[in-house]
Amino acid sequence: MPELPEVETVKRTLSQLVVGKTIGNVTVHLRRIIQRPEEPLEFSMMLQGETIRSVERRGKFLRFLMDNYTMVSHLRMEGRYGVYDSKDPLETHTHVVFHFTDGSELRYKDVRQFGTMHLFPLGQELEEQPLKKLGLEPLDDAFTLDAFKSKLAGRSTKIKPLLLNQEYIVGLGNIYVDESLFLAGIHPEREAGSLSRQELASLYEAILSTLNDAVAAGGSSVKSYVNGQGEIGLFQHQLKVYGHKGEPCPVCGAHIEKSVVAGRGTHVCPNCQPLKKQRSRKA
Ligand SMILES: [Zn+2]
Fold first, then answer.
1. Does the annotation flag 57 for ligand binding?
2. What H or E segment, with its residue span, contains residue 252?
3. Per-residue model confidence (pLDDT) at position 229
4. What is the residue extent of each domain of the chain?
5. How many C-beta atoms surround the C-beta of residue 91 within 10 A?
6. How far is the CA of 185 from the centre of ligand 1 (A)?
7. What is the architecture of the domain spanning 145-268?
8. What predicted TM-score, i.e. pTM, was given to this entire model?
9. Residues recognised as catalytic
C-alpha cells in the first residue's frame, strides 16, 4: 500500500500534469470506486466544467481542489493515476476516466479495485469522513516534538500499532514504521508510554528523516507502486530492515528478524532494538 512518501510523490507529479485542466466529462466503469455521491452519474455531472486548481495530500489521501468541489481519492493497495491522450487505447482495469477539454485524460487504474473517490463541496471534505478524524501530518510545521510526545504520553498500546493508527499520526504504514523504529533503536512491541524522553526524541527525528529521505527518492517501489507519470520510486534501495529478513543489520551485523506485530509483518534487529530496556547492572 502506498504510504505518505508515495502519495506525496503522486501528488507532486499530478500537480504538474493536471492543474489548470478543465473536466469536460467523466466516465465511470466501476461504480464501487465512487463512494460519494452514491450515483456515479451524479459524480460525473457535478464535475462537468470544473477546473483542477491544485492537488494536495492529507495523510495517504489525495485531494483534488476544483472550483466548487474537492475530490478525495485513496489509492489503497494498487490504485494508480496516469495522464493519457484520449486516442490512447484504454488499458484493462481502468475504472474512472476524467476527460479534459484539451483532449487529454486522467485515468484511474486499480487491479485490486479497493481504491475510493469521494466528492465534497469545496472545503467540506475536512469536516467529514474519511478525512475528519485524521491525526498529525508529519511533514507539517505543526508536527513538533512536543505535539508528538503528547500523542504518545501515557499510552499502554504497543508503539508500532500506535504509529500505524491514522488518528494519531497520518501517512505512516508498515514500511516506514519499521524503518523509523529501527533508526531510533526501539522495539515495535514496546509500550508507547514507556519510551524515555531520549527515545521519543530519537523516534521523532527518525520519522522525519525517514519520510523526508523517502520523499526525496520518489518513494519506494516495493510492490507495484508507480507514481503519476509511470516512474518508480527508488527509496527501496535505502530500506535498512524492511524486506531484509535474515540479512545482516547494517549497523551491528546481527541477522534481521521478521515476526508479526499487531497483525503486520515486522522487521527488527534483535540487537539494535532490544524488547526489554537494559536493566541496571547494579545488583
Ligand atoms: Zn543491529
1. no
2. none
3. 65
4. 4-127, 145-268
5. 10
6. 8
7. Orthogonal Bundle (1.10)
8. 0.90
9. 2-3, 60, 264
What's the confidence (pLDDT) of residue 283? 37
Torsion angle, alpha carbons of 145, 148, 149, 154, to 10: 180
Residue 239: is its pLDDT beyond 80?
Answer: yes
Looking up cell 500500500, which residue turns up?
1
**Does pLDDT of 1 surpass 80?**
no
155 appears as a binding residue in the annotation: yes
Q: What stretch of H or E contains 35?
A: strand 34-36
Tell me whether residue 112 is annotated as binding: yes
* One-letter identity of residue 258: K
pLDDT, mean of residues 260-272: 96
Whole-number Å distance between alpha carbons of 7 and 19: 17
Ligand 1: centre distance to CA 208 (Å): 21
pLDDT of 279 over the 60 cut: no
From the CA of 48, how far away is ligand 1's center (Å)? 55
DSSP 8-state class, residue 14: H
pLDDT for 146: 97
Residues, Cβ < 5 Å to ion ligand 1: 249, 251-252, 254, 269, 271-272
CA of 186 to the centre of ligand 1 (A): 11
Tell me which of 1.25.40.390, 1.20.1250.20, 1.10.1740.10, 3.20.190.10 is the CATH number of domain 4-127. 3.20.190.10
The burial class, CB within 10 Å (0-12 / 13-18 / 19+), for 96 is buried
What does the pLDDT look like over 198-228, one tens digit per residue? 999 999 999 999 999 999 988 887 655 666 6
